[in-house]
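Lesson 9: reading folded outputs for more than one chain in a single document. The general rule is that every protein is listed as its sequence immediately followed by its structure tokens, and records are never interleaved. Here is the first one.
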Amino acid sequence: MTKRDYYKILDLPRSATEADIKKAYRRLAMKFHPDRNPDDADAEAKFKEAKEAYEVLSDANTRAAFDQHGHAGVDASRRQGGGGGGDAFSDIFGDVFGDIFGGQRRGGGGGRNQVFRGADLKYDLELDLDKAVFGASVEIEVQKLFECDTCGGSGAAKGHKPETCDTCGGNGQVRISQGFFQLQQTCPRCRGTGSVVKNPCDTCLGQGRIRRTKQLSVKVPAGVDTGDRIRLSGEGEAGRNGGPAGDLYVEMHVREHDIFERDGEHLSCEVPISFTTAVLGGSVEVPTLDGKVSLKVPTETQSGRVFRLRDKGVKPVRGGPRGDLFCRVMVETPVNLSSEQRELLRQFDASLSADGQSHAPREASFFEGVKRFFTGGVGWRARPVRSTPY
């Protein structure tokens, strides 16, 4: 792939001073650093490109080679041992990280204390349906690691400071030789921080962080559903060595409702109606999340019929029209009948039978279909079936 002009990468003229180069790189490094742009391949590529441009232009030898012969001149200069901006880059790299993470540079050895971002946390929040639909402010308690107030996060006792790790020399990394190869890994003694605590703080026992409980108020927006997450920036665990805190992700879990079932922005429920209302028609009260409404039931309504109440559902959290409420009416069979009521029903049934099948068209259609099924094919005949109660 063809490399770009280093001056264009840093957006500088060829007459730029060393201070201009340093300032331009700091700006791009803070903008495109991978810790500020997680999972962003384009930002990572731009960060590496700016890093390479600074390494070349911050060194007098490689810059002169680039000005005269371009990228080929830089390659030739490096093969001849002409620098490469390594020391200068180390300094600016530490400055940039200090700006991004708030870390402190370490004295001695020319290195710096490495900083580490705090871990992200997850909190499962259970919500009633009405709070999920209309939104709410919910108080939660989270246990997490805080920076120790006694030592300010250093882990060292009062009057003492962390000392440079003598295993890695403060780099936080150690090299291990295996045959022809050299492997670099995190220092096992300082765990990558570059420093060790020889006089630990009595409060945090040298960890620099202590676990406490914090109460937070979470504003739940209207329309959330199970699986939706709210990100509370900086409410995760405290970082190490002055690193930024992680984030807290609050994940929604909507409890089952006694009446309603939710499907996205729509709600549904079952509405029991009497046999008389189903036959003669009438109106029944139906609960909604906004209050009760009257549902008009037409005459001769069959059990299982669904009625739609517009705009009685949920308004989606990501925008869009409010959903509907679907009411499925279920005809309730009378129970605990008296002898007189049973006799009246028998007389009623007899009066219907006297008129033929005109009062039960679905029943007539069903049995006609059964008759055709068993008599339409050769060799078909009805067989008695013994029913077994559950």
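And here is the second record, again sequence then tokens.
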Amino acid sequence: MEENNATTSSTKGKGLGTAGMVIGIVALVWAIIPLVGAAAWWLALVGLILSLVAFFMAKGGGNTKRGGMLAGIILNAVALALAAFWIYKITSTVMGAAGDLEEAFKNIDTAAIRQSLETAIESATDSTAH
């Protein structure tokens, strides 16, 4: 029996493509959550790699149904971009707060604090001596 190659489609990369798309959906939902979304970068990276590998496997294997693989690539790329945004926002906020704290420590008058401590110790010593 002769097989007609025109009507049959390859399934090469289909499983990896589906896995990449599902991971992309999860990563995107995770990346949308404020602050927590910064941790979605690793999941989006894994999903992006899976989707890309599946896409090139399908392209090389003659699979014309690559929509799920493309969706996985897009979803994971967007999730990765959102995670990078959250990482940037968290880092800039922490660095700004650290700069403010450093400036506050520079403005502390250590001589006045030392004088206050010495006065407090003298008055405590005087009150216990009487």
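What the second record shows: The longest helix spans residues 67-106.
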